[in-house]
Here is the input.
Amino acid sequence: MSSSTVIRELQRDFEAKSNDLSKLQKDIAKNHQVRKKYTIQLGENELVLKELDILNEDANVYKLIGPVLVKQDLAEANANVRKRIEYISAELKRLDGNLQDLEEKQNSKKEAIFKLQERIQSLQAGKAKA
Amino acid sequence: MAAAAEMEKMSVEQVKAVKEQADMEVNILQDSLNNIRTATSRLEVASSALEDLSLRPKGKKLLVPLTASLYVPGTLDDADKVLVDVGTGYFIEKTTAEGKDYCDRKINLLRSNFDQLVEVAAKKKSIADEAAATLKAIHFIDQFTMRDKERGEEKIVLMGSPGEIVQREGVHRFKVGHELIRDRWSHDDNWHWQSATEQATTSKPWR
Here is the structure.
């Protein structure tokens, strides 16, 4: 095989890998966004829980459902918020795992691309000499 | 600082990356600080409104805003009990005093967060500045070598292993291996680092 076809082959490979990399980077950015959203929600819920915790047993708690305030049992509200915090924490953990996975993939892709680049360059340099 | 020591071992690209990253983080932190500030002022408004409300007697006539420009007359029924929006759709019935207490607690929480953030932001800022100073010093050396080629002036080669960045006078650093021109009209035979950096920063004329 002549060196120019090899180079072309490598360049095609290079392009495919770059596309994969940008896809991965998009996924990571998306992950970051979702995680940010959940982190904010988690913080808000924790604040609410703290408020609920310091209330007297007979305090009146209302929940906004659509445009109406509905009176709710304190214990029920407490359980609700706790469940939400649990859910969000689990979701955050899952996202963390996902992110790690994605980052590993990204790094290996980057390395592969770097190696390809080096090979293409050395081949091109060899061709220029010849 | 540990970050500064690490920066001396980095390449120009790495320092640039560090600077960009630090700048970005500084901006984000700055935004957060602004958000906290607005939140605090909103709570302060709420707190003073509660104070105001508690001073009004029961049965007092007042105008209730339905929209920003439409008000309807009403009478104050119960200034003792207020509903506090604690977030995520939950409202808690509190007395006015408790409501005020809630506002004050939130304000204090925000203040302490604010102070913490200010500290973090200052640290990030110093890293960004550090990186900027390093970049400037490297850039400065590059210009020196260019001038040197044009004029063929006396050169001073930094001592040390090539690529190493030496630090002089705290802020300015030079990459060893680059060459520095000694200023021709300088009468100071004990020419040292400091004067070179001063020339760069004060842009002293070269002729």
